[in-house]
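Team,

Forwarding the record for the chain on the shared tracking sheet. I've put the sequence and predicted structure together so nobody has to dig through attachments.
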Amino acid sequence: MVKCPVKLKVNGDEFELYVEPQRTLLEVLREDLGLTGTKYSCGAGECGACTVLLDGESVVSCMTLAVEADGKSVETIEGMAKGGELHPIQEAFLEHGAIQCGFCTPGMVMQAKALLDENLNPTEEEIKQYMRGNLCRCGTYPRMVKAIIAAAEKMKKSRAR
């Protein structure tokens, strides 16, 4: 099978890969780059477990072909913590018990990051609407909303410094 060249900037690191045109971004991240924080769950773009940021926009990586990401920047859960310190969203998810089994957490955190990068003052209703595509079998939705509100406050304070 013919392979296509794909250049990706993943969590700040540049990669040049040759991939089969039908391979998803999720497969490339997990299998080729070893970034297993992004989870495979439904494989149909319905659950949000595989959410990553592609040029700052949230996408379900199981439905995004790797060739569609050529020349773009990808941010995964592995890129959130900096210098050994958790991102404020990750801290808030821990502090508010928004993590149960943890399987949905990477996708939830990435979706929350997309929201807060766009709007640091979301209402509870805006959070629920924005996060609606991310499913949690453990039912941590109320805690997740509280965590996102807390993370927004942390991010506002750190920007004010």
